Amino acid sequence: QKAAQNLKPVVPIKFCISSRTDTGVHALCNSAHLDIQRAPGKPAFSEKQLVYSLNYHLKPEPIRILNAYRVTNSFHARFSALSRTYIYRLLMGCTHYSEIPVFERDLCWAPTGGYLNVPAMQDAAQFLLGTHDFSTFRSLNSETPFQSPVRTILQADIRPSSGFLSQHYEHRGLEFWELKFRSRSFVYRQVRRMVGALVAVGQGKLTPHHIKELLEIKDSRAFPSNAMAPPSGLFLKSVEY
């Protein structure tokens, strides 16, 4: 918003963002809409001008505008979204946090104990697909009483991935994996709780069938204590319209 105010709009600019994320979570791509009104006689900004101008004023910030599109007045960055895709990056093979590559710090989660039983995690993830009451998988906040806990998970995949420059330290035996989730929307901290429960399955603390049981309980207090994944490994990948 501060960067946009430097474009000297007639009316103060307000960004409406597609979704909020917890502190420490990253976004590979997020979207927002804004209305920008220029002084009389000045032509409207082109999409390219807007991208260059905003990025010029965002230089010191860890944020970049990738694209701009002119949309209809009925468009809303949050309410027009068809789905949102999150990825969670796991690092396996670390017996101590000091083994996490320094360039991956705060960009993945290395659960204690080294390796995880990925096939068991993949079996467990299938229970999350479809429409369910995700009460057990949401943290409580001020909005909880006003929001439905029912959500539809369209995708829940666990696949091998690559780390930053990982081809240069293959001898260290580290493995990166990505968990991908897609839904129209998620309840508060749902993705971090789903990841934490799946990791508990991978560690043998839960069985795949426990995930089904947690869903059926429909009570946030039934979620295993200290099982929520940290925010550092979570990335909003894209918002689909």
From TrEMBL:
It catalyses: uridine(38/39/40) in tRNA = pseudouridine(38/39/40) in tRNA. SUPFAM superfamilies: Pseudouridine synthase. Coiled coil: none annotated. Keywords: Isomerase, tRNA processing. Residues 124-241 form the Pseudouridine synthase I TruA alpha/beta domain. The keyword tRNA processing applies. The active site is at 22 (nucleophile). Its EC number is 5.4.99.12. It comes from the Eukaryota. It is an enzyme of class 5 (isomerase). GO terms for biological process: tRNA pseudouridine synthesis. CDD domains: PseudoU_synth_EcTruA. Signal peptide: none annotated. Substrate binds at residue 86. The keyword tRNA processing applies. InterPro entries: PsdUridine_synth_cat_dom_sf, PsdUridine_synth_TruA, PsdUridine_synth_TruA_a/b_dom, PsdUridine_synth_TruA_C, TruA/RsuA/RluB/E/F_N. One of its GO terms (molecular function) is tRNA pseudouridine(38-40) synthase activity. PANTHER family: PSEUDOURIDYLATE SYNTHASE, TRNA PSEUDOURIDINE SYNTHASE-LIKE 1. Belongs to the tRNA pseudouridine synthase TruA family. This is tRNA pseudouridine synthase. It comes from Aptenodytes patagonicus (King penguin). The lineage of its organism: Eukaryota, Metazoa, Chordata, Craniata, Vertebrata.
